[in-house]
Design a protein that fits this description.
Layout (H helix, E strand, L loop, with lengths): L8 E4 L5 E4 L4 E6 L14 H15 L4 E6 L7 H6 L4 H25 L4 E5 L8 E2 L2 H9 L3 E5 L9 H11 L4 E6 L4 E2 L11 E2 L1 E3 H6 L7 H9 L4 E5 L5 H6 L5 E5 L1
Parallel strand pairs: 3-4, 3-8, 4-7, 5-6, 5-7, 8-12, 11-13
Antiparallel strand pairs: 1-2, 9-10, 12-13
């Protein structure tokens, strides 16, 4: 299924922007932790997070039920720490805690805009957020809240990409959108190779066979097995999220 082929209508958001609406009922948006840094070298840029929250609100106002997964690379990256000699399991748990911090930052930004949201963590921490229980998450979505899913799958050796694919399947999402620093899928890293070839559409098998690193292999296989299309787009372009959800923005889609 190609998002561009979805039948569309239009709606006007509270910001006054008229954007198209797909017939997707529920989607999962995966953001890298680096998306929250803005122009900083690390950490959380409150102004940039507020801008992202505004785009998410506009997308939500089209009638979508939205799940959100945010990585933790802006604070701590488990695999990088493991490569420097730290125990991998411990490093991954630290990375999971970083995703909870990012989730709370995004929740705060959304609620300042009047958008109701809930943070559900795969690691129990009742004083900070709710525990991830599937039926609870579904109930929040049905009530019109954005569900921010934190701490990955709650176990080491799994990336937040895999956590996003798992939650998308678990919660019955129609599609997974991944916002990155590039505008789609390339055969090589376009930041290092100016001649990199871009794909508008591509199938799961090719992504896995060519090891294109759109998401990690486990995540791609999960989406393939559950027929969840993956759309890759640049989150750094202002307004791009709404355009891509409407099928008008620049993106690449992985499907059967």
């Amino acid at each position: 299924m190609n998002i561009a082929s979805i039948a569309r209508t239009t709606t006007t958001t509270t910001t006054g922007a008229e954007i198209a609406v797909t017939n997707y009922k529920r989607v999962l948006l995966k953001l890298s932790g680096e998306a929250l840094m803005g122009d900083q070298q690390f950490g959380i840029d409150a102004e940039y997070v507020a801008r992202l929250a505004g785009e998410i609100r506009s997308a939500k106002e089209t009638g979508l039920e939205m799940c959100l997964v945010i990585g933790g690379g802006n604070i701590f990256r488990g695999m990088a720490a493991a490569a420097r000699g730290m125990d991998r399991a411990q490093a991954d748990y630290m990375g999971m805690l970083a995703t909870v911090m990012n989730a709370i930052a995004m929740q705060s930004a959304l609620e300042q805009l009047g958008v109701s949201s809930r943070v559900l963590s795969a690691i129990q921490m009742d004083a900070v957020c709710e525990s991830m229980i599937r039926r609870r998450a579904e109930r929040h979505l049905e009530k019109g809240r954005i569900v921010i899913l934190a701490a990955g799958v709650g176990a080491p050796y799994f990336t937040t990409d895999t956590g996003a694919a798992l939650r998308a399947a678990e919660l019955g999402c129609c599609a997974l959108f991944k916002g990155t620093s590039v505008d789609g899928i390339y055969d090589t890293d376009p930041k290092q190779n100016a001649s990199a070839v871009r794909y508008d559409t591509i199938n799961y098998a090719t992504v896995l066979a060519k090891n294109l690193r759109v998401m990690d292999a486990t995540a791609v296989a999960l989406c393939r097995d559950n027929s969840i299309p993956i759309t890759i787009f640049s989150i750094r372009q202002a307004g791009n999220l709404a355009r891509v959800l409407a099928g008008d923005g620049v993106s690449s889609t992985v499907s059967h």
